[in-house]
Fold this sequence. Notes:
By secondary structure, the protein is of the alpha/beta class. The chain has one domain (62-347): Alpha/Beta hydrolase fold, catalytic domain (Rossmann fold, 3-Layer(aba) Sandwich). The chain contains 10 helices and 11 strands. The protein has helices at residues 16-26, 115-128, 147-164, 171-174, 189-202, 229-233, 244-254, 291-303, 320-323, 327-344; strands at 30-34, 38-41, 46-47, 66-74, 79-86, 96-102, 131-136, 177-187, 212-218, 280-285, 308-313. The chain has an 8-stranded mixed beta sheet with strand order 4-5-7-6-8-9-10-11, sandwiched between helices. The protein has a 3-stranded antiparallel beta sheet with strand order 1-2-3, with helices on one face. Strand 2 (38-41) and strand 3 form a beta hairpin. Helix 3 packs across helix 5 (189-202). It is globular and about 55 Å long. It starts with 15 loop residues before the first helix and ends with a helix. The model is unreliable at 1-17 (pLDDT under 50).
Amino acid sequence: xxxxASTLSLNPHNTTTRNKEYQQNHGSSVVEEIKGLxxxxxxxxxxxxxxxxxxxxxALNPELNVxxxxxxxDNVTNTWARFYLPNLHHHNDNKIPLLVYFHGGGFxxxxxxxxxxxxxxxxxxxxxxxxxxxxNYRLAPENxxxxxxxxxxxxxxxxxxxxxxxxxxSEWWTKKCNISSVFLGGDSAGANIAYNVAIxxxxxxxxxxxxxxxxxxxxxxxxxxxxxxSEKSMAESPGxxxxxAASDAYWRLALPRGADRDHPWCNPMVGKxxxxxxxxxxxxxxxxxxxDRNLELCDALAREGxxxxxxxFKGVGHAFQILSKSHISKCTTYQMMSCLKSFIMPHL
Length: 348
């Protein structure tokens, strides 16, 4: 429960040199590949090129007025979290909400230390005025589903323990955080994790006095065996970071052996929708292959009595808020942050 130990590496395990040596020694043994992102060999060896640099928690723009620190959740599984605390002088002694956030990457790539997430979540913390806890969970295919869901629950249990036991290492954030105003959120696969963790929380009372007040789903990553219209029409959309072939490959790597895309972790529309008892905000991208699935989820939740708010952001694709540097993406990212602020703050 201390600050991140030096023995836990923030960087990907593989290096370009090691990958080249492996390929020279083993030849062509690739059984699954998403070009430039992940390559899986038949003997289980995984290659993940470092497509995004990892940064330390201190790598922040001082103008944001945000403090960031890494903390260990579980040494055994190497699960840790990066915290972002805004220095909001006008709040005085008022405690602020906590957003527990899960990064995207198809369950197979990504890190809470990726520079794009570090920058986005630091800005989000400052703009919304909430504390953000960015969870670094285990990745597939080494750790297929439900491992990330387990890590999400473990992260919430850890938060509860920090408050109940008044841990000295966590006082810097627990004294400023409202445990009765906790939100779960994430983008892409991270939104899928947030959704499934929220279902577990709704079915359990073990996290009290921690209280889940809402769910934030940004371009939630779901699928199904039957294609939607947006999956067919935008399978190779140049304006989006996710195409249909990559989506299918992520699911093959992440789902339990033998499962198809109609497994409920991939397709929550199969059978009866599981109970979700908290207000939900869904952020959808117009040029995303997931657009129709996201809209279907909103309709289904509303029919079950869940209070759902959603916005379709025009002219942007999947993960625009972290990967695109275009003018429209930057402007739309701040629009998205404004939506999150309006959703989170009224629940205080």
